Amino acid sequence: MGNVVIDVMLKPEILDPQGQAVNGALPRLGFDQFTDVRQGKRFLLTVDGEVTDEVLEAARKAAETLLSNPVIEDVVSVRAEQDVDASRAEQDEKDPGR
Amino acid sequence: MGNVVIDVMLKPEILDPQGQAVNGALPRLGFDQFTDVRQGKRFLLTVDGEVTDEVLEAARKAAETLLSNPVIEDVVSVRAEQDVDASRAEQDEKDPGR
Amino acid sequence: MKVGVVTFPGSLDDRDAARAVRAVGGEPVSLWHGDADLRGVDAVILPGGFSYGDYLRCGAIARFAPVMDQLVPAAKGGLPVLGICNGFQVLTESHLLPGALIRNDHRKFNCVDTRLRVENAQTAWTSDFEQGQEITIVLKNGEGGFVADERTLDELEGEGRVVFRYVVPEGGRNPNGSYRHIAGITNERGNVVGLMPHPEHCVEEGYGPSLDGLPFFTSILKQVVNA
Amino acid sequence: MSTSTASSSTGHVPHVDTVGNAGATPDHEQPWLELGLKEDEYQRIRDILDRRPTSAELAMYSVMWSEHCSYKSSKVHFKHFADNTTEEMREKLLVGIGENAGVVDIGDGWAVTFKVESHNHPSYVEPYQGAATGVGGIVRDIMSMGARPIAVMDPLRFGNLNHPDTQRVLPGVVAGVGGYGNCLGLPNIGGEVVFDDCYQGNPLVNALCVGAMRREDIHLAKASGAGNKVILFGAKTGGDGIGGVSVLASETFEEGGPAKRPAVQVGDPFAEKVLIECCLDLYKAKVVDGIQDLGGAGLSCATSELASNGDGGMQVELDLVPLRDASLRPEEILMSESQERMMAVVEPAKLDEFMEICRRWDVEATVIGEVTEGDHLVITWHGEVIVDVPPRSVAHDGPVYHRPLERPAYLDSLQENATGSLAKPTTGDELKADLLTLLASPNLCDKSWVTDQYDRYVLGNTALAMPDDSGVVRVDEETGRGVAVSTDCNGRFAKLDPYAGAQLALAEAYRNVATVGATPLAITDCLNFGSPEDTGVMWQFEQAVMGIAEGCRELGVPVTGGNVSFYNQTGDVAIHPTPVIGVLGVMDDVARRTPSGWKTPGQVIYLLGTTRDELDGGEWAHVRHGHLGGRPPKVDLAAERLLGEILVNASRDGLVDAAHDLSDGGLAVALAEATMRNGVGARVWLDAVCERDGIDAFTALFSESTARVVVAVPRSEEVRFTDMCTARGQVHARIGVVDDQTDGIDVQGQFAVTLDELREAHTRTLPAVFGE
Ligand SMILES: Nc1ncnc2c1ncn2[C@@H]1O[C@H](COP(=O)(O)OP(=O)(O)O)[C@@H](O)[C@H]1O
Ligand SMILES: [Mg+2]
User: Fold this and answer.
1) Which of UniProt's keywords are assigned here (chain C) (predicted)?
2) What CATH fold (topology level) applies to the domain A2-94?
3) What is the pLDDT of residues D48-98, one digit of tens each?
4) At residue A22, what are phi and psi to the nearest 5 degrees?
């Protein structure tokens, strides 16, 4: 069983009320290091077998036709899940204080 | 200027109506290779300087207190943006047919 | 009797909740999200609406308002609190009530008159109902699906803390996909109640589908007077 | 939230086209054509300024002189409205056409404002955001009059229900209307959902808002009093809706083009909700001297209109505008259509209080200029003058076209092709089958898939909403005084005869308001048409305007304002002319409104009005034969007026318990709707009506003759009711009785149809296409 992760974000020039709301709330909770917040979507698509190039290509097509609205959103990444886990593990190592 | 990416997904046992809807729509559009879809959130937090360990730690706290609800959601990753770009570039290379 | 009604930015049904309090002879007191002050009220209503636009998650940002810093300990100490719709969402986000409310299973906002069964007529807000009574109350939300893990659900049922259930024909679907048809719940003490439907829209002849919302407000009136 | 801000570009100020520069470079080529200006219009700007415009000025003129903002093709026809407004009508108006929205007096010191507007094209491009910002825009118009918005409505038109693109557009539009309106806390109390192939590439998304205030609280859009501050408040300005204007910005860029600018606007209903509450607090504190919403043409419109309606000039420092996107150029800032912004004119002494109220609501407010002694609008960018114009020339003295018009040649053959030759049902079974087919058809089917997505209860004042004939809301909580509103238009009728079609829309909305027991007071209209450059379309437009104007005079209700939407066409093919009319009526106690469904067994059903053989353009011909031809039903406004009086009196005196107007699908559909409403059946007989009006059962059931309603009369009131009708000359016939023993409707001698059959047909259509 394999997974494909697709990330979709509002285009940078498009107003993001949700991100704005988070941005407004963070300082009130004492988080003042962040200057901006944007909120997007993350899709996790599962396939029965391996994530082949064909699967990725299909995922990319789905991302562009169904999962995003090209008028206001960008597909920022389509990748096999392993990549994420890898980067996550790496990250966790960097910061043992978690 | 640096970015932190935070990924939040509904816990596997929680109903995901949006993911279900995508899941139902994919085969109708000819995508029949996917067996399941889950939809989550992706946050992009911007900081003025570099993404230090302190920044990551703050992001992790924000993710756990504000950006996710532990009753229904998991924070699946908190990382500096570079990781994403790297994995994305790598991905793109893997699939030159894009 | 003074019943506080909290206004968050984006609260919508605060005026309606105040009107309902007035309808039974109570005195509504408006509470401002930014003031860490409950103004000596005897009970509090967290009204419906879209606090902070319901961005991020419903009720997630409102939970951190200064007024909540006062309300959470007061509720834990027994102050009667009713969370209606968005107010219910704020209560779950604040962990005063268990579970969470997610997107309706059909993914649409849904405004319908709905039948509820009163499963617990002993809480501060439901004592004027009969146990098992069926009532008609306005339901209107986009994220009203009540979810919790199995253990929590069993616990809620075991302790009689499910206060309202959607009346659904055998094998049928409820209006938002709530687990076990749950429309409203209470805490262990029975002073904090949250529900998705809107009793404040059912208190005036000619302006709503029924008068079945009135007992919520008469219940609290008696409770406070007797306390 | 201060009087200055660092959010605009800092340090390096790129080159801008100043007034000095424009004077020195008269021959500089300008992209007026790309901006939609005609050569003579560009020349006119040069004549007004006596030099070439700066690029910022060109931006302002081009957008303000666009069809959308200047009404250049329609203006000349508005004289029909003025010419037909009598003294009686004018008395009801506190504010008339020309302001952001008209205001009518509803008595007891209350004033009500309402207006309908289109957001058609944006909703086709991006259905959710287009529809959402359409609602947001009309609500700000209502707020700018000083009113609290109290309800919204959404007349919608889509292409074929089964076309794949309808499945993209409709759910998005409905979710957008609901997403925005629900989040604002405004009850949606009605609207329309109409399907017709002619709207396939041009869906119509019209939005109406109603607001209420005390008479003395009316505010106007004007900048007066030299030294008064000009404040921009609400959301930051971004690149929203700029699209084409970027050609200008690219002009002034030294290297490369401008960043990509979105042509779609994204709404933030939460920001608008907070803005509403903030404005209401500002009005209450009496710190606002003049106010204007920012809608189409953004700051260009707000500054020039405020200045031109005032008694002085205005000076604005554009670099003080808080930006969401620091790379925006001055031309773009002037034209940005970012949502959720307002502009106020405030006396210096009240500035602190103004700012304090904004702070309480967390609304960003910035002083960006002030009212000046002169008579020019002067806009600077980091100290350099980039605009120096007479504001009237921008806002009001735009070009006026007398576009050629001509009755289309196709009309004769269209009108000759009447329904007379179509095959009609004759047996009872055939009649029943046609009724069920009609009830299931896209235009007549149950619309709750749509309307359940709208909050109709919020604010707690809704006395009637969908699916009743009008939305009814209480304005005064003490007395119950309130208003009823209905919107209507049958585009097929307007296609067959635009003058009559417009009057039929007016008549139907008027009748719907009277049916619930309210006295019609005033109208607003949204005129959706094809291209004004098409002589046939222009002729339709003139006909419709005349129809409305003359119809309003006959009914004694003034036009308070409205909106024109041209260019709704795909290639050469225009939509049916669609003049949507919204009628507003008043009731002294809305608790007494008459609902559309009957409830009480034994009550007597009367049909008011005369039925003629009028099926052309009607729903039966459309659904059963896909036929459009002939002439629309006869307009009889005197009959409508009389019927209205009967209905209002009957409601006031408690003579009727239910009333439902007859329109699309005729008597058959009205009976079915009144039966399904509460699930209480009826026995009906048609013989007397057939005999009196000289028609057959089919015509009695499906004709769409106007000025008709069915009412349910308590037995105890029957004599008083019929006496009233007789005394006033109202045609009436006893056609049935409410009967809970009858399952559904029993049309005696013809057919019986059960409640299940009716509901099965009526409720399945939209869920079958869009999902449960
Ligand atoms: N888009 C909509 N939004 C809100 N209400 C709607 C909408 N479309 C239809 N309705 C409501 O559904 C009911 C039936 O609509 P319609 O058949 O067009 O009424 P009528 O023929 O009386 O004008 C009315 O109450 C109308 O206001
Ligand atoms: Mg009607």
Assistant:
1) ATP-binding, Cytoplasm, Glutamine amidotransferase, Hydrolase, Ligase, Nucleotide-binding, Purine biosynthesis
2) Mth169; Chain: A , (3.30.1280)
3) 999 999 999 999 999 999 888 889 999 999 999 999 999 989 988 998 887
4) -65, -45
Q: According to the model, what pLDDT value does residue D256 have?
A: 46
Q: Please say if the pLDDT value at position D4 is more than 80.
A: no
**Does any CB of chain A come closer than 8 Å to the CB of residue D739?**
no
User: Which residue matches tokens 């009240």?
Assistant: D350
Tell me the H-state helices in A1-98: 17-28, 53-62, 81-94
Q: What are the sequence ranges of the domains in chain B?
A: 2-94
Q: How confident is the model at residue D20 (pLDDT cuts 50, 70, 90)?
A: very high
The mean pLDDT of chain A is 85
Single-letter amino acid, residue C157: E
Residues of A in contact with C53 (CB under 8 A): 17-18, 21
Rounded to a whole number of angstroms, the distance from the CA of C15 to the nearest CA of chain D is: 7
D265 labeled binding residue: yes
Are D182 and C50 within 8 A, CB to CB?
A: yes
Pocket of ligand 1 (CB under 6 A): D 154, 156, 188, 190-193, 447, 450-451, 454, 466-469, 488, 512, 661, 663-664
**Each residue's pLDDT tens digit, D689-706:** 999 999 999 999 999 999
> 3-class DSSP state for residue C147?
strand
Strand partners, C205: none
Which atom of ligand 1 is found nearest the CA of D664?
Answer: 21
Domains and CATH numbers, chain D: 594-772 (3.90.650.10)
Cα angle, residue D253 at apex, residues D252 and D256 outer, rounded to 5°: 145
Average pLDDT, chain D: 94
State both tokens at D685.
């007989």
Residues with CB under 5 A from ligand 2 (ion): D 469, 512, 661
Q: Which two tokens stand for residue D339?
A: 């949502």
Of the candidates D464, D663, D443, D560, which has an alpha carbon nearest to the alpha carbon of residue D208? D560
Rg of chain A in Å (alpha carbons): 16
Contact C60 B66 (CB under 8 A): yes
Query: Which residues in chain B have their CB less than 8 angstroms from residue C93's CB?
Result: 69
Q: Is the peptide bond between D467 and the residue preceding it cis, with omega within 30 degrees of 0? A: yes
Q: Which domains does chain C have, with CATH numbers?
A: 2-226 (3.40.50.880)
Percent of chain D with pLDDT over 70: 96
Neighbour order of strands in the sheet with D93-95:
D93-95, D102-107, D110-118, D204-214, D148-158, D188-195
pLDDT band at D508 (very low <50, low <70, confident <90, very high): very high
Nearest atom within ligand 1 for CA of residue D443: 17
Residue bearing the bigger pLDDT, D98 or C181: C181
